[in-house]
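Onboarding guide, step 5: your first structure request.
Type a short instruction followed by the sequence, for example:

Predict the 3D structure of this protein.
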Amino acid sequence: MLNKPFRAFRYLRLLRLIDCKSFFYLSIAKLCNITLPFRYYAPRLGQSYTETLFTPETNNPRQLIELRRSIRRVARHLPWHTKCLDQAMATHWILSRRGFASTLYFGVRKSEETKDLLDAHAWVRCGDVYVIGYQPLSQFTVVGSYAKLGGGLSVKV
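The system replies with structure tokens like these:
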């Protein structure tokens, strides 16, 4: 019975700054998705229908892997359910704040359970690394993309 509070305390003690940022941006993304229509926060996602270049943004891809781990770790411990859109938006905003150019993709595919419905998904790419949400075998068709420039160039799609 006392083990769970001590485990929570240990997690809080090990909490790093990146986890605090992940918590903040995941909370803001969830709040935006719940309360606001998409057209109100879409300009904050970057330039629509553009992509960043596939050149490496960093010499150390471990930064991107650590960000992915942090977003997933914090999303697991939140009291509410975060979907791929919340996680992709938070990752996109954090990368932008760090000065990395990244692209947020929106994709759809026909549902495997019922062929009449569509499944939607969101993922983020930074340079040549898919940071979060990318599922190569899922056959999602890209229907929209938003690019935020950290210092790289973007290409109009």
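Each response can be followed by summary notes, for example: The longest helix spans residues 17-35.
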